[in-house]
Design a protein that fits this description.
Blueprint: H1 18-23, H2 27-38, H3 43-52, H4 59-71, E1 75-83, E2 86-93, H5 106-143, H6 152-172, H7 175-182
Antiparallel strand pairs: 1-2
Amino acid sequence: MALLESDVPIREVVTTDPEKAKALENDVRAKILDMLAEVEMTIEGIHEELQRRGEEKAETTVRHHVNVLKDADMVELARLEEADGGTRKYYKSNTRVFSYDLPEGADETLAGMQATATGELESLVETLYEEHGNEIERVAREMKPCEYCETQHYEEFVLRELLNRALIDLSETERLDRLLTNGE
């Protein structure tokens, strides 16, 4: 006899590769990504901004965190500048991490919009599979780690990546900002 039995629905999905997940194990790295999302900074600048935000870290520790993010391909060298007989390196994030919580009551507020979005996404997924289903399935099969694994979750991952990349395209070309400001 079970002491507890509950239907537990999926409420969130996090998609990332294992190297990026490992890089985000430390909350300071998420802060660094946030700082570097808008402006390029040197290690010294990152160190100062972290201190301003209440993070007391040695500059060598900051350098280590930036290197971990670089190794995970989440931060890139943006430019080099001659300074004081040496070279100053500026870093910039190529990854945006949203780690927010919705306010209490947002689920009820968003429910109608979620229903609209679900219907639109269903139509979009149908269109994607009609026009590109073979390519999606091929990529999913290439991801499949063993012959016994199902590809269904890999196909879902590919779809989520497509949608995420499309949102990034809208954001990077400032079309998303225009759409969001037109709604105000």
